[in-house]
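Figure 6 in text form: structure in, sequence out.
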């Protein structure tokens, strides 16, 4: 005995397919999707074949086919449902790949537009310094330092966001204060050298600091008036202490 096939009302089909009842009525009117039967009360009834046809209609609509074109394709005598589904899958996969690419592009654009971009003025970069001091520092840098190192430092700073730059500044102040707190110990003390290693890592936010570079930087801390005054604010004698500690680190760690 043949089992009766499941039949769905227009309301049930609309809910399953995510379309409106009005849409299904319109598809019936234009001959795109006609019900297989009607109930005794005259209600449209759809069976599995109509469900499969509606699936094809919705796939073609997703690919922007006009309704009259869809009807012509589905009504062709040699229409192959499996081949059509395979083609739909391929096209939808390509569409999904393109959508994912567009989403990545959007995410990158949002990040670019919302990130706290550096774009800082000299006043922000040298906050706390006068214009005269800034001009003098820039002249001294041009005269005394390796131009490539200066350029590398500028390149790295320009890539930072304002928050990253603030984090770097905060780390520099913190490690300097920690070294100042231990300045009553010997410069080669294990705890002091551990902080000097952290200071060296901090310097490399700006440029690679080899043994020679780091040794020379320590010398400059003790001999350059502005640098010396900066470190003396943390603790009297700190610039000379850091010079000895940095030279020890350069000789015994970086040069090996």
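Output sequence:
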């Amino acid at each position: 005995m043949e089992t009766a096939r499941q039949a769905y009302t227009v309301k049930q089909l609309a809910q399953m397919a995510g379309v409106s009842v009005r849409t299904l009525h319109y598809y019936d009117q234009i001959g795109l999707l006609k019900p297989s039967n009607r109930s005794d009360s005259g209600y449209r009834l759809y069976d599995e074949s109509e469900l499969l046809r509606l699936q094809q209609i919705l796939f073609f609509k997703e690919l922007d086919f006009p309704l009259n074109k869809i009807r012509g394709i589905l009504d062709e005598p040699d229409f192959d449902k499996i081949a059509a589904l395979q083609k739909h899958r391929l096209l939808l996969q390509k569409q999904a790949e393109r959508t994912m690419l567009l989403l990545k592009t959007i995410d990158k654009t949002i990040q670019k537009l919302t990130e706290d971009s550096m774009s800082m003025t000299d006043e922000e970069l040298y906050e706390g310094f006068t214009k005269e001091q800034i001009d003098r520092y820039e002249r001294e840098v041009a005269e005394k330092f390796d131009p490539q190192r200066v350029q590398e430092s500028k390149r790295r700073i320009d890539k930072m966001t304002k928050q990253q730059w603030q984090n770097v500044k905060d780390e520099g102040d913190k490690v300097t204060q920690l070294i100042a707190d231990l300045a009553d110990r010997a410069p080669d003390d294990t705890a002091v050298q551990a902080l000097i290693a952290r200071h060296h890592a901090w310097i490399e936010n700006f440029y690679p600091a080899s043994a020679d570079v780091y040794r020379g930087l320590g010398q400059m801390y003790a001999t350059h008036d502005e640098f010396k005054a900066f470190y003396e604010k943390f603790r009297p004698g700190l610039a000379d202490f850091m010079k000895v500690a940095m030279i020890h680190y350069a000789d015994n760690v970086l040069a090996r």
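Caption detail: The longest strand covers residues 44-46.
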